[in-house]
Description:
By secondary structure, this protein is an alpha/beta fold. It is 55% helix and 11% strand.
Amino acid sequence: MENNIIEASYPITFRKEDAASLGAYLKNRQSVVLIGMKRVGISNFLRFFLNHKDIAKTYIGDEKSYLFIPVDLNDLVEREVGPFWILTLKRILDVVNKRPFGKGLKKKIEMLFLDSIQSQDLFLTIDCVRRSLIALSENGIVSTIFFLRFDRMKDAITHELFANLQGLKDATHHKLSYVFTSVRGLDDISPSVFTRTSLSVFSKDLYIKPAIEDDAKIILKTYKDRYKLTLSGLEDQILLDTVDGYVQYLQLALIYLHEKKVPIKTRDDFFKSLSYDEEVGLQSEELWESLTQQEKNVTTKIIKNDKIAKEEKDKAKYLWDTGFVTGSKIFSPLFEHYVKEVEKEALNNSNGALEFTKKENLLFNYLLDNINLVCEREQIVEKVWPEVEALGVSDWAIDRLMARVRSKLKLQKSQYEIQTIKTRGYKLVESGSPR
C-alpha cells in the first residue's frame, strides 16, 4: 500500500539524533516522554518515525516484529478515562488491520473491540485492551503505543489510570512500551499521580528542540512544494535564519509568502513583516503563555543581557532543555521580538487597542452571522483560519482569540456577549440572554 504521508519520504537521516535516541529506548522496551515547546515539530518528527519504512531496521532492529500504535488524543471529544481507553482499543484494531497478520489474530482483536463497545463497561474495555496486547505479544509482536498530546488528559489522570498503564506492561511481560508527547513532563502534568520516584522506573524524558538547519531544509522543501513557492537560495537562507528551526514559524512564514505573493527583498524587511503578522504574533503569544512566571522572568533577563543567578537558571531549566534558550541566546528572533513588545506594553501600562484585529473581526462577524447558534470549533477554524486549516489550529489559539474578542466586547460595552458551550464551541448572544 502506497504511503501518502509526506514525512515518510524524508531521508532516513532526518532528526537522526532524536530518532536514534528514541529507537534505543524502544529497543530496550523503555517508555519515553517526548517533551517540547508547543508546535516545535514533534508531530512532524513522529509522522516521520511512525511511517518511514526504514525506521525500525535502522534504529531498533528487526522491523517485522515491531508494531507502532499511534493514539492521537486530539481525536477525543470528551477528555475522560472511558473514551481514552475506547480510542486506544480502536487504534490497536486499526493498526492490526493494516498489517499482514493472520486472520485469526485480526478477528480476535475485532471481537474484543465489539465486546467493549457493546458493554460500555470501563473495566471490560481495559481488559479488552490487555487481551489484545497479550495476543499480539504471544504472536511475537512487540508493541509501542504512542499517546500523542497526552497533556490533553491532564484533568482526567488518576492513580488508577497510571496503575492500568503499568499493568498492561506487566501483562505483556514488559514487551509493551509507551511514547507520550507533551509540552511538559508527566510529573508536571499530574505531580500527585506521576511522582518522580515512580517515573524513574516507568519512563525516560527525551526533549525535542527546534530543528537543526539541515532538518529544517528538509521540512522547508516539503512545504515549498505544497505551496508551489519558488525561492532563491538566498531567500531560503533568510527564511531559515528568521524561523530558526521552529516548525510552526516556518509554516506560517510560507503561508505568508504564499498569500502575499511577494519575494523576500531583504532580511530586515522580511523579519519586520513576519514579526507584525497576526498569526505569527498569536503563535508567539501561545509560546509565551506556556511558560511559568519564573521562566518568563529569566527569558526577559536573557534578552536584556542581565545576569542570571544559578538558582534562577535551575528553576527555569525547562528553557534550556526544550531549546527556548541555547547558551545565552533566545531560539528565534521572532519570539524575542514578541517578548520585547510584551515588555514594552507592560512598561507603558497599555490596555491595548479596542478595535478588532483582522482575525478578531473574522471571528466576531462569523459569530454575528450565526447569532444564537452554536458555532463548533471545526467551523470556526474553517472560517477564521482557512489558510492554516490543513496544518491544524490549536485549542489554545481558538480559546485565546475568543478571549480577546470577549474582552473587547466588554470594554466596548457591546450589546453582545460570547457564551461557551461545553465540549461543542461558542455562541454569540445579546447581553442578558439566558444560557
